[in-house]
Amino acid sequence: MESALPLLLVVLLSAQLAFCGQLVEYLPGYPGKLPFKLETGYIQVGASEMFYYFIESQGDPRTDPLFLWLTGGPGCSSLSGILYEIGPIEFDIDSYLGGIPPLKYYPYAWTKTASIVFLDSPVGTGFSYSVTQEGWVSSDTKAAKEAYEFFLKWLDENRQYLGLQIFVGGDSYSGIIVPLVTKHIVEGNEAGVIPFVNLKGYLLGSPRTDSVLDENSKIKFAHRMALISDEIYDAAKTSCNENYVDVDPTNTACMLALQQYQKCVKDVWTNDILEPNCVFASTRPHETWRSTRSLEEDGNFILSPPKIPSLWCRAFNYALADVWANDGTVRDALHIRKGTIEPWKRCNLTISYTKDQLSVVYAHRFLSNKSLLVLVESGDRDMVVPFVGTVEWIKSLNLTIDIDWHPWFVDGQVAGYTRKYKYSDDTYRLVYATVKGGGHTAPEYYRKRCYFMFDRWVHWYPL
């Protein structure tokens, strides 16, 4: 857990708290002026100083929707979402020769058609910090409440966006937080909280939703993907009674079946079962290990060896974010308060965090009669949060199938498959979509496909 700030620093920072966002026109590593509007800043929520990046729509910001975006973890910075998933810039990895990693423009960004507030949440994530020792402690419940209060304050300070259609979005572990924040907004609107949020819906990518469903689905997914044999799957299914969480250690048959399963999948890259598993070098000397870490885990490693095409692993790319965000000139450009976060980590596992919401299916049920537009998408090769469990909790909402399973296309090719659900009175519309070949999370693997999926959905067009 991060240490409490020195009292003098807290006093000095307190004088700045009333100041919200600052424009960023140039970023180290990017050639020239940024071709989009970027603002960064802090908003105080209790003892927390919540850091955000705001990218205004490159389309028509007067009419395009507004999103609050939360990256997974818990503890992964929203900068990861900007650079690797849905933002208008990315690292020019092929040109990196050392020093500040070069950046380049990415054309198929979700900010082409929406304004997005990327929030570093919970406290301790990215550049968000606390001014008290107690403030560093967080949980699912606290993180959702803080994100909601942050958004209300941001909207109050940026009232020109209040009339837009507003959505909440996130991926990976934020599948727990997004529906809770959305529920807070609905309840706040119904209670007359000011400002009123013109909420239209929410979006979830590869979403952690129910700890039992998500974990149980991994064995079914492994069977469907031919990672385990029929015999191993049948033995596990029968002996474990289809429950692979908190198994009774005296159930010998179940334990043996699960051991066979683990033997088959332990060397598979769970973010995308089609890609190579990676060996990282620790930031601590003389220590190496094999890892399958994702947005739900720590990505704070340096790559080893340097990128060689025949040895490349996708996770090598993450090292550049740590190099870039910890550079002093980058921090100055982003208007980071000195002495608050050292070092920056793409995913911070040192946060003091309690996972106190093991399932948020109840929140989806609550929201299912609130006239909302919902998109849930999954990479169909993601074994971190397999589509199998996602489909199961969606079915548990007992929605009516409006348009049944069918392919959707980008550039004349099948990009995935989709199904549209509705509530009985047709006021709630949930679109579920897979991204063919996509991993965890899908936009990192197929940014263009996912942009078109997002663009069609958010503007109320069918996939």
From TrEMBL:
Transmembrane segments: none annotated. One of its GO terms (biological process) is proteolysis. Keywords: Signal. Residues 1-20 form the signal peptide. The keyword Acetylation does not apply. One of its GO terms (molecular function) is acyltransferase activity, transferring groups other than amino-acyl groups. Pfam families: Peptidase_S10. Gene3D superfamilies: alpha/beta hydrolase. Belongs to the peptidase S10 family. This is Serine carboxypeptidase-like 18. It comes from Nepenthes gracilis (Slender pitcher plant).
